[in-house]
């Protein structure tokens, strides 16, 4: 497997787990921001790692 694909999947899974914990724990204020900001960053980073792999597979 491609290392970029694995790294992207790990980042997306980490982002999703942060998002799910934010939904389950229902924190307020700064705690909510502390969970959502890394979640968004992990998901965007994971997508940037996976996008070239998907583009390569599509063509």
| Count of helical stretches | 2
Average predicted local confidence, pLDDT = 95
Strand content is: under 5%
**What form results from the Cα inertia axes?**
elongated
Description:
This protein has one domain (3-58). It is 88% helix and 0% strand. It has helices spanning 3-25, 30-58. α1 (3-25) packs antiparallel against α2. The mean pLDDT is 95. Keywords: Membrane, Transmembrane, Transmembrane helix. The chain crosses the membrane at residues 5-24, 30-54.
Quick tags:
single chain; 59 residues; mainly alpha; 2 helices; elongated; membrane; transmembrane; transmembrane helix
Topology readout:
Blueprint: H1 3-25, H2 30-58
Helix pairs in contact: 1-2
Compose a concise summary of this entry.
The chain crosses the membrane at residues 5-24, 30-54. By secondary structure, the protein is an all-alpha fold.
